[in-house]
Backbone:
């Protein structure tokens, strides 16, 4: 029992240590496709360290909420991490129905960031917040319906159970449905993490930004917390996708952890390739992209419910 | 057998959704043709092993007409009409997609309450056929360009064809071929009609036809 508890703590600790690596890998892949050398893989860590050493500036129009939001958002994402199993490591707090709590926590983290953005009273941040909320309305049903389909395929109500079943042979019996769920989750992954077909993380034109514009007023350690939270969010959605996509499990914890990490690297590498290959969608087309994701999820649910 | 059939059914639903969501007429024609080819494969996939001449004949006729002849006719009409995209449909693309999802759910509900004689080849078949018909009808009423409406008609017919192949397998070959011939004539006539509408109004926007009243 003791060893299980220690192993359960491994995933959140590992995630916190390695999450900033993921944006680094994406940037490196994009640089490779653009013919540049690109920033070092450790650049996100250096950015975080630099931001943490700086002081924060708060606009006089903001209230305490604005100062509270970065820490609260990060804390909520860390709690979400405790619900996720990874490879051979069990989740810290698995219970039946925890996938609903996971979706709720991720929504709560976004809600707090939106509140902080509205708190600044800036019209740009208000616009970003309204876009973020509008797209969330469409990405959440896609995520929930997709997870519901995965629950139905596996017959398990906890994320650990779902992922164990996906590795144990659900891929041989319900491959079309699981593929649809993965497609839908990938669209949600790109939306929630402000990646390219939906939002461009590198753009600095306020009229087209969604997520980046919301955090314009944060500075210093607050910005570091937000950036770190964003990296963790990337990890949470990535772990969800990799956990569902892994068709086999060796039973040796270390080997499974290796497979999991390789899966995560493959996923962010794929995102880097995707971002190099396609352009950002027009803002008006984004809802269509997300309704497509909902259609994938509904179709998966239909396939397994009949 | 069932996984292939399921995959085929899912692909058919995708093509319907793609038709609902895309504005370029050329890609719409190609998507509708692809859907026709998928449904042409349906008799072969549904009855593996028995490569009866009847089945092959039906498949070949369907694929040949829907995959080659119709796209050719429609592309010819498109070139003549000089339109590339459906500009302002009555219902927007995102709402159309949502309606497509709703149509699928409605079709599932209806299929559960529909007593079909005989045993369908797949439990997904009746809902997919019904939803394809609904999408076809919806395309006809929600788009303005005559060409998109012809595509809606084709999708509608695809749904009926899927229903026929899956449920009434024993229906005589002659009836199936008769239906295909009807559709062929219809698309042919509509292609000519599009040409004439274009020549008269310099547009294939069907809303312009209202001016005939005055």
Residues:
């Amino acid at each position: 029992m003791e060893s299980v508890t220690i192993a359960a703590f491994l995933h959140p600790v590992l995630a916190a240590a390695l999450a900033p690596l993921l944006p680094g890998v994406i940037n490196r892949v994009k640089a490779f496709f653009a013919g540049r050398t690109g920033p070092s893989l450790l650049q996100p860590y250096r950015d975080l360290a630099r931001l943490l050493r700086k002081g924060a500036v708060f606009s006089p129009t903001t209230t305490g909420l604005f100062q509270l939001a970065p820490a609260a958002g990060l804390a909520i994402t860390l709690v979400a991490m405790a619900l996720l199993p990874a490879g051979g490591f069990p989740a810290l707090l698995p219970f039946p129905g925890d996938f609903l709590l996971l979706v709720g926590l991720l929504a709560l983290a976004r809600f707090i960031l939106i509140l902080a953005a509205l708190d600044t009273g800036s019209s740009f941040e208000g616009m970003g917040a309204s876009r973020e909320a509008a797209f969330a309305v469409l990405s959440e049903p896609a995520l929930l319906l997709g997870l519901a389909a995965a629950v139905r395929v596996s017959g398990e109500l906890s994320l650990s159970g779902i992922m164990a079943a996906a590795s144990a042979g659900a891929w041989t019996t319900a491959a079309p449905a699981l593929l649809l769920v993965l497609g839908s989750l990938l669209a949600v992954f790109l939306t929630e993490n402000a990646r390219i077909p939906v939002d461009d993380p590198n753009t600095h034109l306020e009229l087209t930004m969604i997520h980046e514009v919301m955090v314009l007023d944060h500075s210093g350690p607050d910005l570091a917390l937000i950036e770190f939270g964003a990296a963790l969010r990337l990890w949470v959605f990535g772990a969800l996708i990799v956990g569902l996509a892994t068709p086999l499990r060796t039973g040796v914890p270390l080997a499974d952890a290796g497979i999991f990490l390789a899966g995560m690297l493959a996923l962010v590498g794929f995102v880097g390739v995707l971002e190099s290959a396609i352009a950002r969608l027009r803002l008006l087309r984004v809802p269509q992209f997300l309704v497509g994701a909902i259609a994938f999820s509904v179709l998966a649910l239909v396939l397994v419910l009949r | 057998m069932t996984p292939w059939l399921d995959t085929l059914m899912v692909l058919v639903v995708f093509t319907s959704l793609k038709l609902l969501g895309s504005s370029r007429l050329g890609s719409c024609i190609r998507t509708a043709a692809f859907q026709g080819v998928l449904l042409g494969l349906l008799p072969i996939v549904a009855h593996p092993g028995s490569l009866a001449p009847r089945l092959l004949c039906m498949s070949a006729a369907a694929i040949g007409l829907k995959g080659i002849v119709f796209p050719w006719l429609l592309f010819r009409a498109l070139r003549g009409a000089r339109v590339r995209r459906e500009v302002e449909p009555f219902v927007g693309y995102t709402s159309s997609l949502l309606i497509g999802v709703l149509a699928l759910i409605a079709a599932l509900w209806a299929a559960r309450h529909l007593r079909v004689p005989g045993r369908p080849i797949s439990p997904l078949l009746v809902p997919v056929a019904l939803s394809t018909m609904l999408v076809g009808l919806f395309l006809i009423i929600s788009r303005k360009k005559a060409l998109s409406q012809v595509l809606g008609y084709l999708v509608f017919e695809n749904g009926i064809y899927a229903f026929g192949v899956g449920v009434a397998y024993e229906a005589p070959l002659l009836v199936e071929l008769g239906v295909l011939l009807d559709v062929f004539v219809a698309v042919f006539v509509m292609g000519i009609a599009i040409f004439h509408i274009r020549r008269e109004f310099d547009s294939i926007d069907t809303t312009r036809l209202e001016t005939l009243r005055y």
